[in-house]
Each structure stands twice: as structure tokens, then as C-alpha cells.
Specification:
- The structure is a homodimer.
- By secondary structure, chain A is of the alpha/beta class.
- Chain A folds into 2 domains: about 200 residues, Rossmann fold (3-Layer(aba) Sandwich); about 100 residues, Rossmann fold (3-Layer(aba) Sandwich), CATH 3.40.50.1100.
- Chain A is about 35% helix and about 15% strand.
- The first copy, chain A, is built from 14 helices and 14 strands.
- In chain A, strands 4-5-13-10-11-12 form a 6-stranded mixed beta sheet. In chain A, strands 8-7-6-9 form a 4-stranded parallel beta sheet, sandwiched between helices.
- In chain A, helix 9 links the parallel strand 10 and strand 11.
- The termini of chain A are far apart.
- Chains A and B meet through helix 4, helix 5, strand 8, helix 6 and helix 8 of A and helix 4, helix 5, strand 8, helix 6 and helix 8 of B.
- Strand 8 of chain A pairs parallel with strand 14 of chain B, so a sheet runs across the interface.
Chain lengths: ~400, ~400
């Protein structure tokens, strides 16, 4: 199957992955060629997978590998309450917590695993301590392919067990995490293990389906803004590419503006954006409750900056108090996301206060993962209960 | 809106709920009249809710109340691996962990809340310590209606916090849980609070959509067996009614046989079934890892026995070791369910060993909720990890 991987910085073209998944000249991430002649297939979604529905946007995947766990087709929920409160025409939440392993990662894991199997690799792997580890472990088991999950040596058992249950080979690694990210890809690629790390090109492709679904859910319209909690940069890159492809295919004439949201305690992209820099710098002493996006040196950081510049979007950071407030507000709309997921709503509130949005805007927040992923964060919220005797039940109900 | 509620035991007909949701003559559960003239509406599932798609099966709900959180439309996953291992034609999992609050409860909560709002009740409530509490709290917040969640006084904060985050009124009640179940319905009904407890008739109705979806997902065919983890009895009653309605509507000529699965440590229905009894007895000293189905005196227990008799199905119990083994097996297919959810696969394995199934059977296991709901259960599984230095990464990958 012919593919074309293009350097996001210098434009160099490759016919296959390099063994770093990056450009050998400028060391920036590679990206699959834009698809410009695809249509959305009709069909009963109870009888098709998300990759079947959008298969024309994946001409480079051999879909005969059927390892779907039912990823995608997540709800887009309008909050009429928050729309009114914030004075914005439409505030929507794309709830990615309803994926098979309860995060958006599943959409990119399946495209990565299919690529690995198309290439005949003997195994797959990833480097992660959270959502991505569980996702790759689950799909590795479903595909019955050797799966290696590399985690930091100091990871707590509490986080490890919901990954271990899927039955992959779990390896704690002592050493620098950033180095591990790159080394695992190279060593893996040269030895038959395809590492589907955060910004691996075939993982990024999987996130395009979020864009296609939003487009369908808004009745074939494009929102004005999409806010995406951003760590390595893979998710926001994939969603933005999805909308660009919808435009290239003539299905819409507008790409939404993208807002990368980060935690103030680890904001390498937002900081570079604020300072007008073209390259990110390593963020020192990261510390935030939004652990899922606590990446001090995101591998796609520079590309996110380039993308935001072309797109007319921006990057913004929100502190832990703003994150916790937004997490609670979302839950009061029935959506319980992990703290990282709440950075999008927190950023929306902050930017609205700065008059960034107009009253007429349609704004979509990506809720990246379930609040059940990280329940310790709940200790930061007040727990209001009362205790009564069963004989006093009437008083409570009549009050 | 006219409704007809029929006693599941004596057949007495009511035009509205009694204030116990049970028959005033024989104290058995009421059930909405069978729907026999409905069709499944076509439509793009990204643009319709599950209650919109199946609205003809809900003539008694005024659907203008739009409080959907994106419940339903969950995947039905075939495990070719387990089909082969077990020697059964088709082993399927209906993964209800991909609902908005990560359990099947959401399907019944929304129908219950809509009924409450249709009747003009000022509030809603429930009695639960787990999945149902989170679900009712979430929909109560979405609907912006007063919501009371009653829990046992001794509930751990760890379980309470993922309920509290949604912002309902949380009340710990000292006293007998079974009495609380009945008292809350009566006191609530008489004072403007509609309690959507486990086998409330309008909650049971919500579970019918599981049947409609399975039917569509199997290409408009009916499976031979459906295995349902069973506690109060609401879930299995709703799914069975859904299939009976598909038959009554002329959409299929077969209703699958139902198997109620329970934990050996709390098996009032399986015990009564085994002993050929027509009524359940309170199960003494319940104790199982499957807490979500640990109900010693299920309010719909007798009706489940009647239903199973008419249906030709059965009830079976599995012990904690069998449950943990099945939980692990499911995870190795990429599906991580809570222990209660694994009773269906555990029962399938046990019954297959007893030659209960034929090679040609299509069997569906209901996976009721996410494994993230109860991660302490993971302490019962071996955690296999190795620790290496980053310099040894090559050895791991090349091995």
C-alpha cells in the first residue's frame, strides 16, 4: 500500500516511516498526506465501525484487520445552561470518555495497530503512564499481538493495575522519560515492534474521526472553535487535520479555529505561543492536577505552534483552581471528565471573560477521558453529605 | 398521556403508578403494557438519541424533554477467540460500560427522569450505593431538577465522591436498606419526588433499548441466549421485554432464552430457581466481590422467576474465583468490566462445561459496567511487571 509521509516543518516526503517517525533532516514530526477526495459513507452505525464509516479518509489502511472495540461515535452534547451562562450561542462537549477504554486514545490506537499489522510487525508497544497505556494494552489483547507497555519506574500500583488487567507485557523503566519516548520508537521499529506513542503519525490519523463526527453531529456544519486539552500534541493535530480534509474534500468551506489548552503548571506550548516563539522550550518543574497533559517537552509542540499560526487559533493555560472549577461545572451538566479534560471548559470561561468569543459562536470542548481515571482528584472537591435516621426520611423529602 | 401498568403477577391493571410502584393487591412489580405496533426509525445515529430512534416503543413518554447524555448505542463485540475456545458459534459482549456514567443504568435513568418530568414532579431520587446513584445524579444535574441520592450510612468516601461530583443532595441513611428502598418510593411519590429505584417500571422500560440494539447489531436477527448479571431484576426484565416487543411487533419470530447470572455469595434468584421455588427467600450473609449485584432480597426476584419460567431460561450462580477468572478473560479481549459484569461470561463457561449450549448457538453477554467503577477488585489479580534500566530496553524488545 503506497503512503506519503510529509515532514510538518520542511516538507520532505517519505514513502514509509523513518525509524524515529520524524524527519531525518529537521527532526520534526511526519504527517500523512492530506486526503482530498473522500466522502462519508452512509450506513447504520450499529452495524459499522467508525473506520468503516470514514474508510475513504483512510486509503492507506488495510481495513481487513478487524480489531474494533467500538471506538468512536461518541456523543456531542449541547449545554444550553452553559451557553446561556456564558453568553455564547452554542457550548458543546464531545464526550470521549465513552470510548472502549474511556479516553480518546482508542481512536488513534486502532489506526496504529492496524498499520503495525499491515506492515507485518510482530508486536506493538507504547510509552505512557495512563490513558494511552490502557488503550494500547486493550487493543493489543484484542488483536492477539505481542504488546509491550513501558511505564515510569515510580508509577503507583493504583495506576498500573487498570493497565495490567488487559494482559500486556508491563515494563517499568528507570531513566529519562523523553529519551524513552524516542528510543522505544527507534529500537522497536528496527526490531519488529511498532510503537504507537502519542504523536506517532498513524495514531494522529485516528483522531481525525473526532472532526468527522462533530461535523455530522452539527448537521454538516463546522463549529467556530474547538478547544483541545493538549499534551504531546497528537490529539489537536489529528482533529485539525480532520477538518482540513473535510474542507479539501469540498464538504465544508470552513476549518474551525483551534485552541490548545494546557495547565499553568505545565504549559510549554501556551508559554511559547504567548511569547511569540516558533519553538517550545522544556517546561521546568511541571506540577498540576491535570496529570494526563503534564508533558514538559511535547514531541509535537513545535508543530502545534505552526498549526495554530496557520489556523488562526491560539494556546492558553489555566491553573488548577480553574481546572477544578470547570471539572465541577461539567459534572453539573452530567459529564464527569478527568482534570485534564476540564482544561477546555476552563479555558473557554477564561477567554470569554477576555471577550475572545462573539455571542454567535459555536464552540466545541473536547472531553478527553473519564473522571474515573483519576479519582484522587476528587479529594480537592468538597464532599457535602448529610446523615439521617430512616425515620427522618420524610423530613428530607418534604423539605 | 394514557398509560397502562399491569401487575406482573395477578394481572391487575392500573392507569397510573401506585405510590409503591407495586400492585396494591399482591405487592408484586408493575410493568408497562406490551408495545405491539412499533417500528425502528431509520436515521443517522450521530444526530438522534437512542430514545428518538426507538420512540415508537415508548408511546407513553413525552420526548419533548431532551435530557440525553448520549446513553445507549453501545458496541456489540464478537469474540472470535472465545467462540473458538468455548466451541460456541458466536460469543458476543454488549459493552454497557460505554454509557455516559459507564453503566447500563443510564438507559433506565433517562426514561425514569422523563416520566417524572412529564408528571410534573418537583424532584427525583434513588437509593443506591453505586452505578445507579452516579447515573441518577448525572441526569438530575443535566435536567436541572432537585435530586436526592440516598446511600447506606457506612458507604466509603471512595465510592461516594464519584457520585458527589455531579452535585445532587447526598443523604446517608441509618437503617434497613430494603425498607429504605420501599419507603423512599412511597414517601417520594406522595411528596413530589419520583424515586427511580432499581425495578421502578419506567426504569425497566429504558433497558428495552439494549434488546433493540442487539437485534440491529446482529443484522436483524435474535440471539439464542442472553446472559444478564442480575441483582434487583430490573435489567433482565427490561431486556427480555424488549425482545418480546420485537416479536409482538412482527420484527422477529423468536425471543432469546434468558440466563440470570448471580454470585454464589449472594444468589437469592439462582437458589430459588435451582430449588424449583416460585418465590425467592432473603439470602443470608451475602458476601461476594461482585458488589454491584449483591442484593439479598431483590424486589423483582419473584417476577424474574416467573419470566424465566415462561421464557424457558434459567438462573445460575458463579463463585468469586470464577468471576475473577472471567473478568481477566474479558479484559484479554479488550473489555474491562467490573466483577458483577463478569458473572455472565463466568456462567457461560460453567454452563458450556455442562453442555447446556449447542455448537450453533449465538450467545450475548451483557457487560453491565466499567471495571474502573471498582478498582479494588484488581488487588485480587496478579500484577506482573518487570523493571529495567533504559539501557536494557533493546534486550526487552529483541527478546
Amino acid at each position: 500500500m503506497d503512503i506519503k509521509l510529509i515532514c510538518t516543518s520542511c516538507g520532505e516526503v517519505y514513502k514509509e516511516e523513518t525509524n524515529t517517525f520524524r524527519c531525518t533532516k529537521c527532526d520534526e514530526p511526519l504527517e500523512l498526506e492530506l486526503v482530498s477526495n473522500a466522502k462519508i459513507k452512509a450506513g447504520n452505525m450499529l452495524e459499522q465501525s467508525v473506520l468503516e464509516r470514514y474508510s475513504e479518509f483512510y486509503p492507506f489502511l488495510n481495513n481487513k484487520v478487524d480489531i474494533s472495540l467500538g471506538e468512536g461515535f461518541t456523543p456531542l452534547l449541547e449545554s444550553r445552561f452553559l451557553s446561556k451562562e456564558l453568553g455564547i450561542k452554542g457550548v458543546y462537549f464531545k464526550n470521549e470518555s465513552q470510548n472502549p477504554t474511556w479516553s480518546f486514545k482508542d481512536r488513534g490506537t486502532i489506526t496504529g495497530v492496524i498499520r503495525a499489522m499491515n506492515l507485518g510487525f510482530k508486536g506493538i508497544g507504547t510509552v505512557s503512564t495512563g490513558n494511552m497505556a490502557a488503550s494500547v494494552a486493550a487493543y493489543g489483547s484484542k488483536a492477539k499481538i505481542d504488546t509491550i507497555i513501558l511505564v515510569k519506574e515510580e508509577i503507583a500500583d493504583e495506576k498500573l493495575k487498570p493497565i495490567a488487567i488487559y494482559g500486556s507485557k508491563l515494563v517499568k523503566v528507570i531513566g529519562d522519560y523523553g529519551k524513552l519516548y524516542l528510543e522505544s520508537i527507534r529500537l522497536g521499529y528496527d526490531n519488529g515492534f511498532y510503537f504507537i506513542n502519542s504523536d506517532s503519525p498513524f495514531r494522529v490519523e485516528g483522531y481525525k474521526t473526532i472532526a468527522y463526527e462533530i461535523f455530522e453531529q452539527l448537521d454538516y456544519k463546522t463549529p467556530d472553535y474547538v478547544l483541545v486539552p493538549t499534551s504531546a500534541g497528537g490529539d489537536i493535530r489529528g482533529i485539525e487535520k480532520g477538518f482540513r480534509e473535510l474542507k479539501a474534500c469540498g464538504l465544508t468551506d470552513k476549518v474551525p479555529r483551534f485552541i490548545a489548552t494546557q495547565a499553568t503548571g505545565c504549559a510549554p506550548i501556551a508559554t511559547a505561543f504567548k511569547n511569540g516563539k516558533e519553538e517550545i522550550e522544556r517546561f521546568n518543574n511541571p506540577r498540576t492536577i491535570a496529570h494526563a497533559i503534564e508533558n514538559p517537552y511535547p514531541p509535537s509542540g513545535n508543530q502545534v505552534l505552526r498549526m495554530l499560526k496557520n489556523n488562526g487559533g491560539m494556546a492558553v493555560d489555566v491553573d488548577d483552581d480553574e481546572i477544578l472549577n470547570a471539572q465541577k461545572l461539567m459534572a453539573e451538566e452530567g459529564i464527569f471528565g478527568q482534570p485534564a479534560s476540564a482544561t477546555s471548559l476552563a479555558a473557554l470561561i477564561k477567554l470569554k471573560e477576555e471577550n475572545y468569543f462573539s455571542d454567535e459562536d459555536i464552540v466545541v470542548n473536547i472531553v478527553t477521558a473519564s473522571g474515573l481515571k483519576f479519582t484522587s482528584a476528587l479529594d480537592q472537591h468538597a464532599l457535602n453529605t448529610i446523615t439521617i435516621d430512616i425515620a427522618s426520611l420524610a423530613d428530607i423529602i418534604k423539605k
